[in-house]
Automatic annotation (TrEMBL):
This is N(6)-L-threonylcarbamoyladenine synthase. It comes from Patiria miniata. It catalyses: L-threonylcarbamoyladenylate + adenosine(37) in tRNA = N(6)-L-threonylcarbamoyladenosine(37) in tRNA + AMP + H(+). The keyword Mitochondrion applies. NCBIfam families: gcp_kae1, T6A_TsaD_YgjD.
Length: 449
């Protein structure tokens, strides 16, 4: 191994990676947590390369490196990923199993809960067994089990919880129910040692919220979406643009497809029109107006080009529409984040730490949105921290790590297994969005392009 590779590995605290494809299941092994941040696009690429070079790291050596450490097995089934992983106290990932249903749901134009439930049922056991096998351990070596029990699709949460209960009946272990959004918010702490409190923006297919993370179990909600989540809006606009038929978008989620096709597009189409919640001086979000506006624009362009919604012809202006929509979504997020930063400044809510904005959830893997957020962070003296894209989308690692964070503090360990229920809706913490609204903070128009 060259000196530069060794230096890189030290820098990224990373020694290897396995990516085994097996019957459509992705199995990953992140032997050590890795460091990444917004301005490390190049580093992401280097990390990826080094990870691939590290294939020689044997599973048994990984397990032995964590000898003496507590291990948490995490299970995720809240939406359309069946995930499981084993992590140690340092945030080292010993083994992972992940089955993504995304391709199937993209074909159907959205997640069908009953189908998602069937797919979780079919794959959950093999995903868990893969995580254990890759970690080189058996279930009896695990110190605790952590499972997503809230929020999410009822039928999907049910599969993960039932599987966990069955497993715990065979082998009693401490059990830690995990809040899916809190897990997204904590993932960064397995990669970088970020101290509480910090500001967190969670943007996914089912959620959009801004919160102050004050502790592993202590969140203040500043605002959330009043209608669609941004990922949902991306998915619907992508569907309306028929991107599932586009040869460059095969197997991509709507958001990924829009990001890919927006490259080189002109953002001016939706420029001054449609600025969601302009008069609401709070941290709420709204994406349904942008979605409707994009649909109206698509319709107009179809009429101009003589294309019908039903046929399989694609618009020539897809890049412009995609870029404009993505830009408006980013702009809306940036205005709400800027207000949250000002609110935290006025209340001195992030005192004692260097100010950090953590962004996670599937939509956080969008590079354009990340760079817009970097702009607002630079302006307000914040550091922007985003997990690498593969940890922004749903996975078992984030659940295992959230479980480990609680386990280390002795928080949220269930005494009575029978009493545990799944909760399709569950708040992330104390809702102080009224206080944000009452503060009536005016934000200057943010221009990041
Ligand atoms: O966090 P996630 O995997 O699942 C939950 O919704 O919890 O997020 C999936 C969502 C999808 O709506 C997808 O379109 C969106 O994240 N997404 C993106 C990108 N990658 C995934 N949206 C915009 N740009 C992306 N690059
Ligand atoms: Zn998620």
């Amino acid at each position: 191994m060259s000196n530069s590779t060794i230096r890189f590995l030290k820098l990224y605290n990373y020694i290897g990676w396995l990516n085994i494809c097996n019957h459509g299941n992705r199995t990953r092994n992140f032997p050590k947590a890795f460091i990444t941040s917004i301005d490390s696009k190049k580093s992401h690429h280097q990390a990826e390369l080094s990870l691939r070079r590290g294939l020689h790291s044997s599973v048994s050596s990984l397990a032995s490196e964590s000898r003496g450490s507590k291990l948490v097995l995490g299970i995720e089934t809240s939406c359309d990923e069946t995930g499981a992983a084993v992590v140690d106290e340092e945030g080292k990932v010993l083994g992972e199993g992940l089955y993504s249903q995304k391709r199937i749901h993209v074909k159907n134009g959205g997640v069908i809960p009953t189908l998602a439930q069937d797919l979780h049922r079919q794959h959950i056991d093999s995903v868990v067994q893969q995580a254990l096998r890759n970690a080189g351990i058996q279930l009896k070596d695990v110190s605790a089990l952590a499972t997503t029990t809230m929020p999410g699709l009822a039928l999907c949460l049910q599969v993960g919880l039932q599987y966990s209960k069955d497993l715990l009946r065979r082998l009693p272990l401490p059990f830690i129910p995990v809040h899916h959004m809190i897990a997204h918010a904590l993932t960064i702490r397995m990669i970088e040692k970020i101290e509480f409190p910090y500001l967190v923006l969670l943007v996914s297919g089912g959620h959009c919220l801004l919160a102050v993370a004050r502790g592993v179990d202590d969140f203040l909600l500043l605002g959330s979406t009043l209608d669609n989540a941004p990922g949902e809006a991306f998915d619907k606009v992508a569907r309306r643009l028929k991107l599932h038929l586009h040869p460059a978008c095969h197997g991509l989620s709507g958001g990924q497809a829009i990001e890919r096709l927006s490259l080189g597009g002109n953002i001016r189409l939706l420029m001054d029109k449609e600025r969601p919640l302009l008069k609401h001086r709070d941290c709420s979000f709204s994406f349904s107006g942008l979605k409707t506006f994009a649909n109206w624009l698509i319709y107009n362009h179809e009429v101009k080009e003589g294309i019908s919604r039903e046929d399989d012809l694609l618009l020539s202006t897809i890049p412009d529409i995609a870029a404009s929509f993505q830009h408006k979504v980013a702009h809306h997020m940036v205005t709400r984040v800027a207000r949250a930063m000002e609110f935290c400044r006025q209340r001195d809510m992030l005192a004692g730490t260097s100010k950090s904005l953590v962004v996670s959830g599937g939509v956080a893997s969008n590079a354009y949105i990340r760079s817009a957020l970097q702009f607002v962070c630079d302006k307000h003296g914040y550091q922007l921290h985003c997990p690498p894209p593969r940890l922004c989308t749903d996975n078992g690692i984030m659940i295992a790590w959230a479980g480990m964070e609680k386990f280390k503090l002795g928080l949220g360990i269930v005494e009575d297994l029978q009493s545990v229920r799944y909760e399709p809706k569950y708040p992330i913490g104390m809702d102080i969005s009224d206080q944000v609204r009452a503060a009536d903070i005016k934000i200057k128009r943010v221009k990041f392009w």
